[in-house]
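Protein in question filed below.

…
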Amino acid sequence: MLTYLALWLGSFIYAIPFLWMLLTSFMGPGQLRYTPADFWPDPWTWQNYAEVWGTAPLTNWIANSLILVGFGLFGQTFVSIFVAFGFARTRFPGRNLFFMLVLASLMLPYHMLVVPWFIMFRPTGLLNGLWWIVLPDLWGNAFYIFILRQFFLNIPVDLDEAAQIDGANLLQVLFRIVIPLSKPAIVTVAVFNVIAKWNQFFWPFVFIQTPDKLTLAVGIRWFRSQYSTDFPMLMTASLVMVAPIVIAFFFAQRFLVRGAALAGVKP
């Protein structure tokens, strides 16, 4: 009973920011400026959810974020599966060295890549758009490669050998044996990828200047100005942004737990 009580208490503490965001989205424009602060909507204002779509190009922001998520999901997840399969199931000279180099790339802060990427893409005319953000996703992600490799190593090699005796090549082994047995790890990587791309802020914020081309994570800054912030509208837009991630996590949590647990098991 004490354990469950502690878990409920901890869950409530973590839920307080989300609860405040939800209540604020139903407040009027100046209610948060009252002294003392009133954290309960009085009266409840439902028109914030209608006004937020007309005040800013929210539909364009959502579409841009979905494009970023879609390309990232296809590029990073799909390519990471191939790279992880190569490190886990094939033998070639320098395999461990190359894998260590892949892991070493995790130590590089991605902010230091801003200037090189800008210099590379400036002659192409792809700046101020999503393409320069999408293209780097087409060659995998070191963290996802690590997770998938660890999971692939837990699958018995005897299954590969039996399939190869029956005439299967490496691609058939990957698609017919390894991938079907690795659904928890692949779903885990996919969910991590969706969350990362949906919440990506820094790169679109630095390189996209046109309001209609912004992503949702950057666009919600629209409701902040130099001298004031429309908190009810800001929280309404933030709730629109958070809701898909919460729903995705709700349906994929069992795969996340299982994938994270099995990926850390030493073969």
The chain has a mean pLDDT of 81. Residues 150 and 221 are 39 Å apart (CA to CA). The chain has one domain: 56-263. Residues 56-263 form a domain with the MetI-like fold fold (CATH 1.10.3720.10).
